[in-house]
Design brief:
The protein is α+β, with helices and mostly antiparallel strands and 341 residues long. 42% of the residues lie in helices and 14% in strands. α2 crosses α4, α5 packs antiparallel against α6 and α5 packs antiparallel against α7.
């Protein structure tokens, strides 16, 4: 089932028509001339370094997930810039530097296009199919909610790429790690910009929250029109049953947070809430059943200084868990995304 990061940002689904590819420049299959224009807008180029001769099976899965995510990001930011430039209600930017924001986001679109072309180019190099675009719907109706969602999605990417790089290292794919590390840094630069727009300090945490590939794979699908992805089934990752946070933590003290889940898909008995925050060991706590599809749990902000992104899942075990991957192995519902400060 599709988990929602929509609930984490407290938005309702907009009724706009789904976003579809290709773009006017031909992306995801731009011509050579269009690629030159993309690189000018991106202020840089695709790498001309030769990729490794071989890749592990897990490394190939990494590239497929990256491609899926990058194309999703191109869709999101393209729609956002279209809404701003067309002066759609909610995107007028009367109190903001409209020209600077359009320039910044236009560069982001081009940079994400290059990220996507790089990942799909690597897949082709290794004899795998490129990941094809889907149709997308984004649950935002104004500029600030769109930037909040951009921050949310980018935070998840920053955690996921940590997992990707470690899997490359463990699988003997060191030749692919450096390029992905450069993308991780670039996404961090983006997120500082989104946080500034939202009135937050640009650097979220001393050590960014980590994640697991399966959480990102699940979260991305909350923006995809069901049945619209030609080959998403070629990505051998898990899609979890949904978990929704009904409120966000205060970021001032401990809170009781209610979580809603689809109890028609999995049993809700014997579950625990497990939080992943920063680079710390996951925290697992008991839950109180509030209804057939709702539980409540403590968010222990004070004890663990749980600022920034926290990934919450309902697990079938209390652990203890040593890392995000062990949490994913025990996850029944999730992820729900929580933010404090």
């Amino acid at each position: 089932m599709r988990a929602s990061i929509v609930s984490a940002t407290l938005f309702s689904l907009a009724s706009a028509a789904p976003f579809s590819f290709p773009l006017q420049n031909g992306f995801p299959n731009p011509s050579a001339d269009a690629l030159k224009d993309i690189q000018i807008q991106a202020q840089g180029t695709l790498t001309n370094a030769t990729p490794p001769a071989n890749v592990s099976a897990e490394g190939l899965t990494n590239l497929k997930l990256i491609a899926l995510n990058e194309v999703f990001e191109v869709a999101f930011f393209t729609e956002l810039v279209q809404n701003i430039t067309n002066n759609v209600e909610g995107y007028l930017l009367e109190d903001l530097d409209r020209e600077y924001i359009i320039k910044s986001l236009t560069a982001v679109i081009a940079q994400e296009e290059l990220h996507g072309l790089n990942a799909n180019g690597a897949l082709k190099h290794f004899g795998a199919n490129p990941i094809l675009p889907c149709q997308y719907q984004f649950p935002v109706s104004d500029f600030m909610s769109a930037i909040n969602l951009a921050r949310t999605a980018t935070d998840v990417v920053l955690g996921t790429l940590q997992d990707v790089i470690q899997i490359f290292a463990q699988g003997g794919d060191a030749g692919l790690a450096r390029g992905v590390a450069s993308v991780l840094g670039q996404e961090g630069e983006q997120n500082g910009f989104y946080r500034l727009v939202l009135g937050q300090i640009p650097s979220e945490l001393p050590f960014l929250t980590t994640s697991d590939r399966n959480f990102a794979f699940t979260a991305i699908q909350s923006f995809i029109v069901p049945g619209s992805c030609p080959n998403i089934d070629e990505i051998p990752l898990t899609t979890f049953a949904s978990l929704t946070a009904l409120q966000q933590p205060s970021g001032l003290f401990d809170d009781q947070i209610q979580f809603q889940f689809d109890n028609t898909k999995n049993s809700s008995s014997g579950l625990f809430i497990t939080y992943i925050n920063q680079q710390n060991l996951p925290v697992t706590l008991p839950v109180s059943q509030r209804s057939d599809n709702t539980v409540e749990a403590l968010f222990p902000f004070t004890e663990h200084e749980m600022n920034g992104l926290t990934i919450a899942t309902l697990t079938n075990s209390a652990g203890p868990f040593l890392n995000a991957s062990q949490v994913a192995d025990a996850t029944v519902f999730g992820p729900a995304l929580l933010f404090a400060n």
